[in-house]
Amino acid sequence: MGSRKTTGTTGVRGWPEGERPRERLAKYGAEALSEAQLLAITLRTGTRGRTVLDLARELLDKFGSLRALDRASQADLRTVGGIGTAKIAQIKAALELGKRMMAESSAGKPLFASSEAVYLHFAGRFKNHRKETFVAALLDAKNRLMKECRVSEGTLTNTAIHPREAFGDAMRESAASVIFVHNHPSGDPEPSRDDLAVTERLKTTGDIVGIRVLDHVIIGDGRYVSLKERGFL
Q1: Domain map of the chain by residue range?
Q2: Which end of the chain is more exposed for a tag (fewer CB within 10 A), N or C?
Q3: Sheet harboring 224-226: ordered strands across?
């Protein structure tokens, strides 16, 4: 890498512009920076004889990962030379912001890991519903609900559900998969021939457009049927 004169400074002003973390972030985006470079921006300055990037690398080498750095106590962090109250606050604040962003992104998004979870989510809104309502639940790669889209309302037949309505929103939202849900106003969730025909048609369409149909859940009065569990998907 060659030598770099520090000339008494522990910052990055003396570095070539292309190597400065802040300038790299502005030019290429935060995703282009290494963990050490991002941590260096958070720390802002190094210590006598060590650049801020050296300090960031020492922290990562000592604790092994950002997760371990987050778990480290203030006393643990102080064992690294040059890490005092101010830098500990900067590190902990940055890591806490990341955790809160992750929590915010998943807050309010149900996880549909089972047909029961789907039933519990939709049962209340279908209670005493007098018309059959067909809904597409769009899911991300972790099976969390991204969006709900009403596909049709009325008696369900094989011709009532059009693939463009069933998958249009899923394609626009780049959904990883979809679960279809509809109710039986009679209260009996047993699938009809039309239910099975619609399910087969939607499965075929999903295979073509690259959006997997995970399930088709039929909701009745206090009961439900999963066509996946019945072996139709």
Answers
A1: 17-106, 115-226
A2: N
A3: 145-153, 133-139, 177-183, 212-219, 224-226
| Tokens standing for residue 79 | 């064992």
The answer to whether domain 17-106 and domain 115-226 are alike in fold is no
Topology, domain 115-226: Cytidine Deaminase; domain 2 (3.40.140)
β partners of residue 226 = 217
* Ramachandran class of 195: left when φ > 0, alpha when ψ lies in -120 to 50, beta otherwise: alpha
Residue whose tokens read 């050490």? 36
- pLDDT at residue 5, rounded to an integer: 39
Spans of the chain, pLDDT less than 70: 1-19, 101-108, 155-160
Q: Class of the 17-106 domain?
A: mainly alpha
DSSP 187: S
d(CA 5, CA 3): 7
Q: List the one residue out of 182, 186, 134 whose CA is nearest residue 161.
A: 134
Question: What is the pLDDT, as a whole number, of residue 21?
Answer: 81
Model confidence over 57-104: pLDDT tens digits? Answer: 999 999 998 888 988 999 999 999 999 999 999 999 998 888 776 655
